């Protein structure tokens, strides 16, 4: 069927309009949260999972294959773990959770400092959980309890912890909002949540961007989940040392 020139022009314009509308709709859907949980999604960056929380793409989790890096001989020199531990405020009877304990680098350094207390070494990966149990038994540390964590829970009772800490772990949490709320529940009223994260503000910190965080981003995310900054220690070579407590209701 032969169409007049005006009709052809009309069809062309209609096609272009529909295409533009579909493109706009697709962009809106890409930016729209998948649900009311506060997360959005994008094409994953290198090293990321494509899930975004409060403007930050969540990094991929380190696998057990990276365990050797966690135990590297240069770690103390590079990150001064001993200084971080000195500033944790540990007492002989403290009850502490090492969340994302990995191979237990921090767990087995703090346990002897709390002979009358307890350390819960928590990890979500079965290989790390098995390694933690084996190492605790080898060292005869009866005050270390290994716990298999979940993606949204640390699987500990309410009102239990004096201190919960994460060392270069928070940025990898698949569900940061839910985990923060669960940690909030497990902390005592005066309990402390400590985050150590590589400094995003410092270009000299040679760590992948998604594995670094700024103080501004950390306090924004924790502030949205019932925490307020309590203490900041600026004496570590490459990491932020940020202590949070439960915000006043």
UniProtKB/TrEMBL annotation:
| UniProt-recorded Gene Ontology molecular function terms | methyltransferase activity
Q: Which domain of life is it from?
A: Bacteria
InterPro entries linked to this entry? Methyltranfer_dom (IPR025714), SAM-binding_MTase (IPR053173), SAM-dependent_MTases_sf (IPR029063)
Signal peptide from the UniProt entry: 1-26
Q: Which GO terms describe its biological process?
A: methylation
Q: Name one Pfam family in it.
A: Methyltransf_31
Supply the alphabetized keyword list.
Methyltransferase, Signal, Transferase
Name of the protein in question: Class I SAM-dependent methyltransferase
What Gene3D superfamilies does the record point to?
Vaccinia Virus protein VP39
């Amino acid at each position: 069927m032969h169409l007049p020139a005006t009709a052809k022009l009309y069809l062309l314009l209609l096609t272009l309009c529909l295409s533009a509308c579909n493109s706009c709709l697709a962009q809106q859907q890409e930016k729209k949260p998948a649900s009311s949980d506060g997360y959005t999604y994008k094409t994953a960056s290198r090293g990321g999972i494509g899930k975004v929380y409060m403007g930050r793409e969540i990094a991929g989790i380190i696998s057990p294959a990276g365990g050797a890096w966690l135990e590297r001989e240069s770690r103390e020199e590079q990150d001064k773990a001993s200084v971080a531990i000195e500033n944790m405020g540990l007492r002989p009877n403290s009850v502490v959770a090492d969340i994302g304990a990995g191979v237990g680098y921090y767990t087995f350094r703090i346990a002897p400092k709390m002979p009358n207390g307890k350390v819960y070494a928590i990890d979500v990966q079965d290989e790390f959980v098995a390694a933690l149990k084996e190492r605790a038994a080898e060292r005869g540390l009866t005050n270390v309890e290994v716990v298999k964590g979940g993606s949204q829970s640390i699987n500990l009772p309410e009102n239990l912890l004096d201190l919960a800490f994460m060392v270069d772990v928070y940025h990898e949490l698949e569900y940061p909002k839910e985990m923060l709320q669960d940690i909030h529940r497990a902390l005592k009223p005066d309990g402390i949540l400590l985050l150590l994260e590589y400094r995003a503000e410092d270009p000299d910190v040679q760590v992948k961007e998604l594995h670094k965080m700024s103080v501004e981003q950390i306090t924004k995310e924790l502030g949205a989940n019932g925490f307020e900054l309590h203490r900041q220690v600026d004496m570590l070579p490459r990491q932020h040392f940020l202590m949070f407590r439960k915000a006043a209701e």
